[in-house]
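Worked example 2:
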Amino acid sequence: MTEPDTARALAHPEPEAIRLEAVLHALSDPVRLSIVRDLATTDAEVACSYFDLPVTKSTTTHHFRVLRESGVVRQTYRGTAKMNGLRRAELQALFPGLLDAVLTAASAEEARVAARGGALSAR
């Protein structure tokens, strides 16, 4: 088995370093919340290119970096693709019910906006 390419390893906070303020900040942006909502629908890792976001590639990179550095997602390289997975279990252990509450609230808001005939900007 080959050793992982440490030059391509991405920094992630250890669970004890994940701060509530950083997680809430990461989830407060509509684009990042959209990414998290999509990741929450699967246990599989998903490539950055999977997401159809209404922003430039450089802005997409920024949003994924904020999510990673806050501890919301884990990113790993698989070949040239950067794969993303939600750190659901770690977030649940640190902040019980927070992620589920945010996801439920986001779904409720989307339904409320749709009922008014509007659309959310990031979804």
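Helices lie at 20-27, 30-39, 57-70, 88-94, 98-115. DSSP finds five helices and three strands in the chain.
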